[in-house]
Specification:
Layout (H helix, E strand, L loop, with lengths): L3 E5 L8 H15 L8 H10 L2 E6 L4 E10 L4 E9 L8 H16 L4 E6 L2 H10 L2 E3 L8 H5 L7 H6 L8 E5 L11 H20 L8 H8 L6
Parallel strand pairs: 4-5
Antiparallel strand pairs: 1-2, 2-3, 3-4, 5-7, 6-7
């Protein structure tokens, strides 16, 4: 099994920025949604600032990546753009990158709320194990620059048409104040999420009449505490 080095990216990794951006774009195309497009200069800047996590092989080959962004004067932090090279998927690397990013962010910004948007069940599972919970978009940052970053996503028009209250992505939040409370169990609640995602696909991608049960599913999924 391939061994990886997962670390905070630095200037020595800047030559990998092109490969990272290419993989971000290919991943977004394959999924038809998700990762906002970034250019190599932006990725290099994150590396210079110490706001990126990178995974490489022993030979230095790019394997995975994600970056940090701060919003609302440091009150919110997002771990964004998580990708793993196709050659190294299903190896547990995504989990290692997420855990490294989470722990690094918690140390660097101990009082900040961590959040993210995702359409990936795998990412939701990892996030739930770290203590994130699904939330309405209204609980996320209201920083205009964050939402502007979604403009390169293929589903941006949907987000705009819903006044930034709903999209195909699911918002997830980690609040350090709630860290002692029971974690949201993705395994137990995944069926609700899957049903809601199917409904959102129909409602948002193929506008139809209101589907019975949507309100109930929203309440179940976004309930702040679970029994």
């Amino acid at each position: 099994m391939e061994e990886f080095k997962v670390q905070v990216a630095n200037e020595g990794h800047k030559h990998l920025a092109e490969a990272i951006c290419k993989e971000m774009e290919e991943s977004a195309k394959a999924r038809g949604t998700g990762i906002a497009k970034r250019n190599p200069d932006y990725i290099r800047q994150k590396m210079e600032e110490g706001k990126a996590i990178i995974a490489t092989t022993k030979s230095g080959e790019f394997a995975g990546f994600c970056y940090l962004e701060t919003w609302g004067h440091g009150k919110y932090v997002s771990n964004s753009g998580l990708i793993v090279s196709p050659n190294f998927r299903k190896s547990g690397l995504a989990t290692k990158i997420k855990i490294k990013a989470f722990n690094y962010t918690r140390k660097k910004y101990p009082d900040a709320k961590l959040f993210g948007l995702t359409t990936s069940a795998a990412v939701m599972k990892i996030n739930s194990e770290l203590g994130y919970r699904p939330v309405h978009f209204t609980e996320l940052t209201d920083d205009e620059q964050f939402w502007k970053g979604c403009s390169s996503c293929v589903n941006y028009e949907i987000l705009q048409s819903k006044d930034r209250k709903l999209c195909l992505c699911t918002g997830m939040l980690y609040d350090p104040v709630e860290k002692k409370e029971k974690k949201w169990d993705f395994i137990k609640k995944s069926k609700i999420w899957e049903r809601l995602q199917r409904i959102k696909d129909v409602v948002l991608l193929k506008p139809l009449k209101k589907i019975e049960g949507l309100s109930l599913d929203l309440k179940r999924l976004f309930k702040l505490k679970y029994q």
